[in-house]
Amino acid sequence: MPGNNRTINLLAIGTCTALAGVWGLVLTLKYYHFGYTGSDLALYAQLMWNLAHGNTHTSLFGGNFLIDHANYIAFLLAPLFAILPTALALLYLKVIVFFAGAYVLYLIALKKLSPALSFFFMLGYVVYPPNISMLFFEFNFENLAPAFIFLAFYFFDQKRLMPFLLTGLLLASIKEN
């Protein structure tokens, strides 16, 4: 039985990695074929560019970006955007965090379900239509929240106070409400 558990763990990691790669490709193709017709990706790409260059003013927001919502996590992500200064970095971040969250959900499910059922539970989350829509739509900081919610629950369940508090702080930095 432990060998089977290891196999399914590797399958879960491999599935998340492969699907993240597929989604990265899909979103790259959408980006290069001008498939983003809303304004969110442009708003947040300009915001991150400005933050990476030390400025909180964003002309697309009409002033300081904190007048809209307090997305303090943008300050933590600014160094990433300084290294990869493209809107694609935000899309890739969204995909990576989503599939990392799916794997954490798998780990949470392992406490109550068999490894095989936990894997199918994770797959259900990954193919859930609202989640697919979120992945395919523009970038918003709120897209990062489910992974942090899962991680907070995981640390709470493991009785690991400091990682739980840090995750809660990161979760609160995504949006003020």
Structure overview:
By secondary structure, the protein is mainly alpha-helical. It is built from 8 helices and 2 strands; from the N terminus they run H-H-E-E-H-H-H-H-H-H.
Gyration radius (Cα, Å) is 18 Å
Termini Cα gap: 44 Å
Order of helices and strands: HHEEHHHHHH
Biggest sheet descriptor: 2 strands, antiparallel
**Tally of alpha and pi helices:** 8
The poorly predicted ranges are none
Spatial order of the strands forming the largest sheet: 1-2
- Approximate helicity band: over 70%
Name the beta content range. Answer: under 5%
- The backbone outline, from C-alpha atoms, is globular
Keywords:
single chain, 177 residues, mainly alpha, two-stranded antiparallel ribbon, 2 strands, 2% strand, globular
Helices and strands in order:
Layout: H1 2-32, H2 40-52, E1 57-58, E2 63-64, H3 73-83, H4 87-109, H5 115-127, H6 129-136, H7 145-157, H8 161-174
Antiparallel strand pairs: 1-2
In short:
With 177 residues, the protein is mainly α. The protein has helices at 2-32, 40-52, 73-83, 87-109, 115-127, 129-136, 145-157, 161-174, and strands at 57-58, 63-64. A two-stranded antiparallel sheet has the order 1-2.
